Protein: Mitochondrial glutamate carrier 1
Organism: Propithecus coquereli
Amino acid sequence: MADKQISLPAKLINGGIAGLIGVTCVFPIDLAKTRLQNQQNGQRMYTSMSDCLIKTIRSEGYFGMYRGAAVNLTLVTPEKAIKLAANDFFRHQLSKDGQKLTLPKEMLAGCGAGTCQVIVTTPMEMLKIQLQDAGRIAAQRKILAAQGGAQASAEAPAAPRPTATQLTRDLLRSRGIAGLYKGLGATLLRDVPFSIVYFPLFANLNQLGRPASEEKSPFYVSFLAGCVAGSAAAVAVNPCDVVKTRLQSLQRGVNEDTYSGFLDCARKILRHEGPLAFLKGAYCRALVIAPLFGIAQVVYFLGIAESLLGLLAQP
């Protein structure tokens, strides 16, 4: 049986609700992922996700784990809404008479969704990464100043904490709109393959758990399918995520490499840090994406927005 058609406003609201809930739950893990991916050999401050979070709380307080969360909470609604609605749109356009999509068409729909979402994802990630990594840079400088002696520590000025508004204004002033879209190519190379893997895998896993007599899968099936598909896709594209994170980081720690582009970054990481560096933060990313997309698919398939819109439409 073909799935019932859902209105565009409902798709957008469902995607937004899912994004807000998901980001609130997993943002500290995402911060740890960014800091683990950005630290280079010889400048390691964190040994693991838990070590990173503990040190962040000690140096920046509990809310230090949520640095950059405001950017995500603001932009995740349009991002997730575009991603889910675009995939649904492309699947509908590629289907014929309600027939089940072939795997290549499912992958093509995912490709379209990933391409559409980078309009919002790239500037969101650009701002978020600066805010998330600022604490690592400040802590590294503090340690180096302490090693240089009390006098050097006293002379080292405290680095001001940037805000998303200041970063946006500075980027627009110095680089124009292109400044917010630095790393666009790397974001495409991460998000398009992610969507190509995620959406077909989710659709097929969700279908496996759908009782023949029911139109929708049970609550837990949609959640587990979203978690498994999200984790698999996240780990598969983690090398591109590492490169993207490095390219979008405007501030560097002491003696850290700078990069001129995607290939230059990939070559330097491979040469200086080895192939395993491309898996930095992979388990953090899996822990972020699994519940994020599990929650997203549950909200989407439960039709929370349809219920809200139905209540508002009642006289």
